[in-house]
Amino acid sequence: KSATAVAYCKRGRGLLRVNGRPLEMVEPRVLQYKLQEPILLLGK
Fold first, then answer.
1. What's the pLDDT tens digit per position in 1-44?
2. Is residue 5 part of a domain?
């Protein structure tokens, strides 16, 4: 199996969502860290 998630960046409240779900609901946990990498690199 393989799946692709699409991310959009826009002005807002700074909430991260994946396929309409909050980042905290993404499993496994290691994916949450992977998804946060670009934000951490930008220092935001």
1. 788 877 777 788 888 888 888 889 989 999 899 888 888 888 85
2. no
By the 10 Å C-beta count (0-12 exposed, 13-18 middle, 19+ buried), 19 is classed as: exposed
Helix (H) or strand (E) holding 41: helix 29-42
Residue 8, in any domain of the structure: no
Asked if residue 1 is part of any domain, the answer here is no
**Gap between the Cα atoms of 18 and 8, Å rounded:** 10
Q: Would residue 40 count as lying in a domain?
A: yes
CA distance 9 to 33: 18
Helix (H) or strand (E) holding 17: strand 17-18
